[in-house]
Write a structure and sequence with these properties.
The structure holds 2 protein chains of 2 kinds. By secondary structure, chain A is mainly β. Helix content of chain A is 9%, strand content 27%. Chain A has 1 helix and 5 strands. The longest helix of chain A has 7 residues, at 34-40. Chain B is α+β, with helices and mostly antiparallel strands. The longest helix of chain B has 22 residues, at 539-560. Chain B has a 6-stranded mixed sheet with strand order 2-1-6-3-4-5, with helices on both faces. Classes of the chains: A mainly beta, B alpha+beta. The A-B interface holds A 6, 8-10, 12, 21-22, 46-47, 49-50, 52, 54-57, 59, 74, 76-82 and B 231-233, 236-238, 240-246, 248-249, 252-254, 270, 274-276, 279, 302, 332-334, 468-469, 472, 474-475, 478-481, 484, 486-487, 514-515, 518, 581-583.
Chain lengths: 82, 619
């Protein structure tokens, strides 16, 4: 199924080729969970710090959280500001 | 040791500079900088004093770790009663001048009265003199800085200075030091100018006194630096992307206010983000970001140094002004948000230019951007007209209008004089006070209380008005530092807010940067203070001192006339639900959190510290 992957900050180089800054359309299995995409795009475990699906945090259940058609998965390494 | 044990009292009315010993009894209870200077202000001034009258005092204060080898140990603060709010004002700055104060032998400088003529304070160790500043008056902060360096022929002179808006009565004027760093919020620069004090120029060569326990101090400092270097945020994220890395994060989680907080979420946020600052521009092939920079003693180096495209509309006709053509202090997240997302402007170089102007003439970019955003909403509502603006088409998203109105604000001319009064007074003047997005008269920073619940409680109860760096719960609610809490929960947030507020009060009193707390806990900070200073500075003692400082500030505000009615948020945030995005439907649930907050603070339901609380904290 079709969904979107967004990688930010120091993870941007892991994005497949494309024009947009952060966002790529990707295809995943219909039963894919968040962790499957993290693994597929080789995001190191310790750098998948902020993980959102459609803007909502996925914290402890990344290996159970089923993705749906057109979901947007967004990932940041540890960051902060003020 | 680590305190110099010396205070310089400057009576501007009399033109005298008098040294006196630091009150060490107070230092043992309030540590330094924010806490200790507030104690002096509380003891020496009437809380009901007019902030811009000679009766108000202004204190520049370092902390015991300022000037030491502790990482980020270069901070100083300006403490006074703020003219924008009428509340306690405490603005913290980095750069290099804090270290210079300390090396000149001064823990703090207390300014009182008002000089009959413009002056600046010159300090060279024990030599302290008020000198005429007629030639500096009317100059920008950057011009005055350059003139003072030239006059004294000393490139190592460190200078804190106000710009033209402060002189013209802009209520949110800052004090800029080292060109790009500022005691930025609450209008401390306006107070300084009201005293006819243009600048403080300092050179210190005395060195810093040895810490109380040198071996323990060097060990604690080395441990602390190792923690900062190994932490992904302070060791890599902040030096690479700066605070601006937050733009996309906060937008994505449904916490980024836009268009005077009419909306949550800015569809062009990525264009003004930290990542965008790294991208080569289509016009000249160069990125906006030139390099990063660090303040004194800092091992994080989050600062942004940027360069505007020479063909950009903002500077293409200013080739004779080198200050805009080269690299200078660039966008931090708060300025990029207030001047950008809140005004709907996504032109990175335009935002960089107006940020240069804020540094050049020492004004708070948060209040400035928010006030312009309020004016834009009033303009679109028809309550501010083209006649009022002098022909400026002040629609959201108009970068050229943003530049024009800021240039007017700096000169204090025309509509710029209205902007210079801040959003509360502007919205009252133009008939819609509810459009001022402020608490106690201070405008919001870049996090929406509808999308992130705890920060709303912090804004409502912050002692200097809507301020994120009184209790930065975003660390926990969004960034997962030290532990992740749910941004949409109200439960548990009173405890979270209190913990952040008290810890921050202590950090702000120590002479180090709040950003260390992205990696350090109090168990990293307390050993550094304890080894540097005489007395007991255990973790518990530090947290108790933080709580004491918070309550002292609260009692000052209560005595100044604030009540629990002021611990609130604009109606928009309490009643107008978020229209779209992941926090759609949310309003701030302040009413659920505030009573519990009062209770755990040991305050009455009217927000007044109980006699037990006062006694427990030794106030």
């Amino acid at each position: 199924m079709k969904m979107y992957l967004e990688l930010y900050a120091s993870l941007m180089h892991l994005l497949p080729p494309g024009k947009a800054r952060f966002k790529r359309e990707i295809t995943v299995a219909s039963d894919a969970v968040v962790q499957d995409v993290i693994d597929e795009y080789k995001v190191p475990m310790e750098l998948a710090h902020i993980v959102l699906v459609n803007g909502k945090f996925v914290c402890d259940d990344r290996d159970k959280h089923l993705l749906k058609e057109d979901d947007v998965l967004s990932i940041w390494p540890p960051v902060a500001g003020g | 040791m680590s305190w110099t044990r010396k205070v310089l009292r400057v009576n501007l009315t009399e033109g005298t500079c008098t040294p006196e010993p630091l009150n060490m009894e107070w230092a043992h209870d309030y540590l330094g900088q924010r806490g200790l200077a507030t104690k002096y202000l509380v003891e020496e001034t009437d809380p009901k004093v007019d902030p811009l009258s000679p009766g108000n005092k202004m204190i520049m204060a370092t902390g015991p770790l300022t000037g030491t080898m502790a990482s980020t140990g270069g901070r100083y603060s300006v403490i006074t009663k703020g003219p924008l709010t009428g509340a306690i004002a405490c603005s913290n700055s980095g750069g290099f001048i804090g270290n210079e104060f300390k090396n000149a032998g001064w823990d703090m400088i207390i300014f009182e009265g008002k000089s009959p003529k413009p002056v600046y304070l010159y300090i060279e160790n024990d030599l302290t003199e008020l000198r005429p500043a007629d030639h500096l008056w009317g100059k920008s902060a950057w011009e005055a800085d350059e003139m003072l360096h030239k006059d004294h022929q000393d490139p190592n002179l460190k200078i804190a200075v106000v710009g033209r808006p402060a002189e013209a009565g802009c209520l949110f004027a800052a004090i800029v030091n080292d060109l790009h760093r500022a005691a930025g919020r609450s209008g401390v620069g306006t107070v300084m100018a009201s005293k006819n004090l243009k600048a403080v120029a300092v050179r210190g060569t005395l060195g810093i006194a040895a810490p109380e326990n040198p071996d323990a101090f060097f060990e604690a400092v080395a441990d602390g630096k190792e923690v900062l270097a190994e932490n992904a945020v302070t060791g890599e994220g902040l030096p690479t992307y700066g605070t601006q890395v937050l733009m996309n994060v906060i937008n994505s989680v449904g916490g980024l206010p836009a268009h005077n907080m009419r909306d949550v979420g800015f569809d062009k946020a990525e264009n003004i983000s930290g990542e965008a600052m790294h991208e080569p521009r289509a016009s000249d092939g160069k990125p906006n970001l030139t390099t990063n920079g660090a303040c004194f003693g800092c091992t994080i180096a989050c600062g942004r140094i940027s360069t505007i495209d020479k063909t950009h509309f903002s500077i293409k006709d200013q080739a004779d002004k080198p200050q805009y053509q080269g690299a200078s202090g660039g966008l931090e997240y708060e300025a990029a948000w207030s001047l950008g997302a809140d005004t709907g402007v996504d032109d990175l170089d335009a935002l960089t230019y107006v940020n240069f102007l804020c540094n050049e003439d020492a004004i708070d970019p948060i209040t400035l951007g928010c006030t312009i955003a309020a004016a834009m909403e009033l303009f679109e509502d028809g309550k501010i007209t083209l006649e009022d603006t002098g022909g400026i088409d002040l629609r959201f998203g108009n970068a050229k209008a943003l530049v024009e109105v800021i240039e007017l604000t700096i000169s204090g001319e025309g509509f710029g004089a209205d902007i210079g009064q801040g959003s509360k007074r502007l919205c009252e003047k133009y008939g819609d006070p509810d459009l001022s997005m402020s608490v106690k008269g201070l405008e919001f920073p870049a996090y929406d209380p509808r999308g992130i619940q705890g920060i709303g409680l912090n804004y409502a109860t912050s002692n200097r008005g809507a301020c994120h760096v009184r209790g930065y719960t975003i660390a926990s609610e969004v960034l997962g530092i030290p532990v992740k809490t749910d941004q949409n929960d109200a439960e548990g947030k009173p405890e979270l807010v209190k913990a952040f507020q008290d810890a921050t009060a202590l950090v702000d009193s120590a002479g180090i940067c709040l950003f260390t707390t992205f990696a350090w806990g109090m168990d990293n900070i307390a050993p550094q203070i304890d080894a540097a200073c005489e007395g007991d500075w255990s973790v518990d003692k530090c947290l108790e001192a933080g709580e004491r400082i918070w309550n002292m500030e609260r009692m000052y505000n209560n005595a100044a006339g604030f009540t629990s009615d002021d611990d609130t948020l604009p109606k928009r945030l309490l009643k107008e639900a978020v229209k779209s995005g992941p926090t759609k439907g949310n309003v701030s649930r302040l009413g659920e959190m505030l009573p519990k907050y009062y209770e755990i603070r040991g305050w009455s339901d009217k927000g007044i510290p109980s006699s037990e609380t006062i006694s427990r904290l030794g106030l």
